[in-house]
Amino acid sequence: MAKQLLGKEVTAALNEKIKANVAALQEKGITPTLGIIRVGENGSDISYERGATKRCETLGVACEKTVLPEDVTQEELLAVIDKVNKDDKIHGVLLFRPLPKHLNQSVIENALDPSKDVDCMTDGSMSGVFTGKKIGFPPCTPQACMEILDFYGIDCTGKKAVVVGRSLVVGKPAAMMLIQKNATVTVCHTRTKDMPSVVKEAEIVIVAAGRAGIVDDTYLSAGQTVIDVGINVNAEGKLCGDVDYAKAEPVVDAITPVPGGVGSVTTSVLVGHVVEAAMRKYM
Questions:
Q1: Is the pLDDT of residue 211 over 90?
Q2: Helices 43-59 and 7-27 meet at what angle, rounded to 10?
Q3: b/e per residue, 238-251, with b = 16+ CB within 10 A?
Q4: Which CATH superfamily is domain 140-263 in?
Q5: Tell me, what's the pLDDT at 235?
Q6: How far apart are CA 18 and CA 118, in angstroms?
Q7: C-beta of residue 125 within 8 angstroms of C-beta of residue 117
Q8: Nearest CA to 111 among 132, 83, 91?
Q9: pLDDT of 212 higher than 90
Q10: 170: Cβ–Cβ under 8 A, 6 or more apart, which residues?
């Protein structure tokens, strides 16, 4: 039976660190603050916003929300971003994406000051991920994967790692972050030939394919650590990952469940980035 890598334990440890940093900032009269910008009334955005707001409240981080209509103009949205860039009381900004199609997402994303970009929206932040420099912040989800590996004492040095998926949101940044941990990394994607045999050779597997249950026991082998980033809804209406947990769990050494794995860590990573942004400025 595989060891479950539970997100709640990682989250609890992260939250204690965040609270200590918040207390240090508050001693200097600074309240770390997250600015949330949401366009429209997308249900998943509202759900994530609710979770982020609640996590901020429990950790002593303030939250300022700006909700704009679905038909907001590009100029109006850019004006809001310019305002939060100039507001010294806001230390990190979360802008929900994708944006409505009439908006130029690339222009809008890169209008944000990278020092306030707590979820790797800007090209500047992404360059920080690839260079290892402290420019902005890495995406919260791959950072959550790294936090899980660290918490459970899984040393990546010299290990073979495979990332399934090559998106800029998870796959590519996760690969770069594993390289920074001295792993030898292979990235698999839709054009990879004989993907199961490639994944089988890995010691650490991060799956971010965006397809429910795509990785099953035919991809896996004994001794592996599997981090499942996927969040899907199956035919029964239940949340499930990109890994077929029932088939993978008897084979591998350790695995994150869905739900209860990576997703539960991501919100604390976001709040931690806000606090770190404030500390970079004032400490």
A1: yes
A2: 60
A3: eebbbbbbeebbeb
A4: NAD(P)-binding Rossmann-like Domain (3.40.50.720)
A5: 85
A6: 15
A7: yes
A8: 83
A9: yes
A10: 139, 141, 142, 206, 208, 229
pLDDT of residue 171: 98
Percent of the chain residues past pLDDT 70, beyond the cut: 100
Locate tokens 């932040």: which residue?
Answer: 125
User: What is the value of pTM for the model shown?
Assistant: 0.96
CA dist., res. 115 & res. 226, Å (int): 32
**Class of residue 131 by CB neighbours under 10 A (exposed 0-12, middle 13-18, buried 19+):** exposed
At residue 12, the 3 state secondary structure works out as helix
Domain boundaries, the chain: 29-113, 140-263
How far apart, in whole angstroms, are the C-alpha atoms of residue 148 and residue 157?
15
Residue 167: phi, psi to the nearest 5?
A: -70, 160
Token pair of 25 as six digits: 């900032």
* Residues 15-24: tens digit of each pLDDT: 999 999 999 9
State the average pLDDT for the chain: 97
Element (H, E) at 177: helix 171-180
Q: What is the largest CA-CA distance in the chain?
A: 57
Which residues are registered as beta bridge partners of 92? 34
In the numeric block, which tokens belong to residue 181?
């941990």
Give tens-digit pLDDT for 73-114. 999 999 999 999 999 999 999 999 999 999 999 999 999 999
Sole residue written with tokens 């440890």? 13
Q: Which CATH architecture has domain 29-113?
A: 3-Layer(aba) Sandwich (3.40)
What tokens does 196 get? 């199961």
**Does pLDDT of 139 surpass 90?**
yes
Average pLDDT, stretch 45-63?
96
Q: Answer yes or no: are the C-beta atoms of 219 and 188 closer than 8 Å.
A: no
